[in-house]
Each structure stands twice: as C-alpha cells, then as structure tokens.
Design brief:
alpha/beta; Rossmann fold; L-2-Hydroxyisocaproate Dehydrogenase, Chain A, domain 2; 2 domains; 6-stranded parallel β-sheet; globular
Length: about 300
C-alpha cells in the first residue's frame, strides 16, 4: 500500500511518517514538503535507515508522485494558534484548496485524511474543492477523544486501556465530551457531576497550556496526532471496521447539512463505512447545537471563498 504525506517537514507530518513506517502500514511512503528541501531529504534518509529490514521504501516527491496512493495525509499549513484554531482558517484555506486540485488530478481514488487545522471547515473545503466522495474525506480530530480518555483514566484511577469515551462537535473550544459514551472495562459507567466538572475544566485549560508550550518549545502535539493518524491508516489497511471519531462532511446526520464536524465513524478499506448517530442526553444535545452554531459561519466562509475561485 502507498501512502503520501503532504507537509512532511512539519512536526505532525514527519511524526506520522515515522509511526506509519515502523508499523509497516505502507510498502511505499512519499514525503511531500514545501521549500525545506534539505530537511525533507534528511527525513527521507533517516527514515529509510530506521526501517531497514522492514521492507518499507520512503522517498521524497512532488504532487505528481501521489499517483496510486491509497491514502493521502494532509499535514501542511500554518501552526500558529492563539486562542482558537479558527484563527488560521484564512491562511490555510487557500492552501487546502490548492492541494485539493492536485489530489483530484493525480489520485482521485485516494482516501484523504486532512490533519490541518481548523480541520472541520478545511475538510469541508477539501470536499467542495475536490468534488470527491465525502466518505473518502476524513478530517483528523481524534486527539480530543484521546485526551478525554486520558482525563477519564486519571480521574477514575484506572488504566487508560480500560476506558472508552468519545468527543464530537467542533475540533476546537466548543467540543462536546460525551459522558454518556463512557465505558470502563467495556461496561457503561456513570460519571458523577464532580468528575465531569473537573474534566471539563481540564479540557478547557489544555489549549492555552499547549499553545504556551508550543510558543516556548516550537513543538506541536504531533506525537498524539501521529498515533491517531497511524490508527486511522491501520483501520483502512486492515479493514477493521473500528469506530474512530473523525471530522466528516454531514448530509443529514445529526440534523446537519453542508457542515463538517466530528462524529463517531466506522472506518474500513474504503474510508468511512458508516456514520453512527448516537442517542445523546439532553445536555449533550444542547452542547452539540451550540457547537454546530459556532461551526456554521466557518462553513459559510469556506463556501464564499470557493465561490470566488
């Protein structure tokens, strides 16, 4: 299987390339970067050395080298975030539009995973720009659910492998943590109000903390994203039918049209096999409606921008 990564010189793209390579999820990995050719060449040489004996070929290339890719991961774009991922929509939207044209030209049958933020409107932009099947266009937003499970395991005093929990809505400040989805050891678990409040506070504080650390260190949460992107690639390659929350273009699901947001999705070899519509508690439904209303203007911004193209 061939996987191409656009934006491979960035933290997310390079971390994903390493994880995908060492897990042997592709026979060939094409790294596509911008102007940092020396860094890209360095990554190619180092990765090829790292996977010696694993029968994985890593090479650098341009958009034309995406041909025959089963999966294309988009990790290119501005990582500058101050208070909200939405702030970089004007910078990243033209970039995604351009990448979409290349995907449409060189590998229209690929499954495209967009990891560039703000992912909800940008995956919607990928859909409108490429005119590809929405079930093959996946916005990466699983970090929210990964962190939710981390907070749950810490608060409940159990191993993270024992906890399940899903976040839907905006991949951003209005995300909705579904406490109704929480399971411990595979069984439904009723989280008390005190723990709910503690986890909500942790989730609200985390973006500012991560942004402060990014400003000081220059790194993003790329290792987390690379783990989630690797899980998506594994689900596609092995046709697992695993439920992975993703930002998807909706057409009636959760009462939404012409809108992208995170929902629970069954992932397999053809991309999204099914969007699951879960029954939500009244407070979760209310929170989701607020998130949808925050996302709507971003979707209209995307539509207006593309209308002018």
């Amino acid at each position: 299987m061939k996987i191409s990564i656009v934006g491979a010189t960035g933290h997310v793209g390079s971390s994903a390339a390493f994880n995908i390579a060492i897990h042997r999820l592709a026979d060939e990995i094409v790294l596509i970067g911008g102007s940092k050719k020396a860094r890209l060449l360095q990554y190619v040489e180092d990765l090829n050395t790292a996977v010696t004996g694993l029968d994985v070929l890593v090479r650098m290339g341009g958009y034309e080298d995406m041909r025959d890719s089963k999966i294309v991961i988009i990790a290119a774009g501005s990582a500058e975030v101050i208070a909200s991922r939405m702030e970089v929509l004007p910078q990243n939207l033209p970039l995604i539009h351009g990448i979409a044209q290349n995907v449409k030209q060189f590998c229209p049958e690929s499954i495209v995973i967009t990891a560039t933020n703000p992912v909800c409107p940008l995956n919607y932009a990928m859909y409108l720009s490429s005119h590809l099947d929405r079930k093959k266009l996946i916005g990466y937003s699983a970090n929210d659910s990964i962190r939710f499970r981390m907070f749950l395991s810490q608060a409940l005093g159990v191993k993270s492998s024992q906890v399940e929990g899903t976040v839907i809505g905006e991949h951003g400040n209005s995300q909705v943590m579904l406490f109704s989805s929480v399971k411990v050891n595979g069984k439904r678990f009723a989280v008390n109000d005190q723990i709910k409040q503690k986890i909500r506070q942790q989730a609200a504080m985390l973006p500012a903390l991560l942004e402060d650390l990014r400003m000081k260190s220059g790194r993003t949460a790329s290792w987390t994203a690379s783990m989630g992107l690797t899980a998506l690639c594994h689900a596609i390659k092995e046709d697992t039918g695993e439920m992975i929350p993703c930002s998807l273009v909706l057409d009636g699901e959760y009462g939404c049209h012409q809108l992208g947001m995170t929902v629970p999705a069954i992932i397999g070899m053809d991309g999204v096999q099914q969007i699951q519509e879960w029954e939500l508690s009244p407070d979760e439904r209310e929170a989701l409606n607020r998130s949808i209303n925050i996302l709507k203007p971003a979707m209209r911004y995307v539509e207006e921008f593309l209308t002018k193209k």
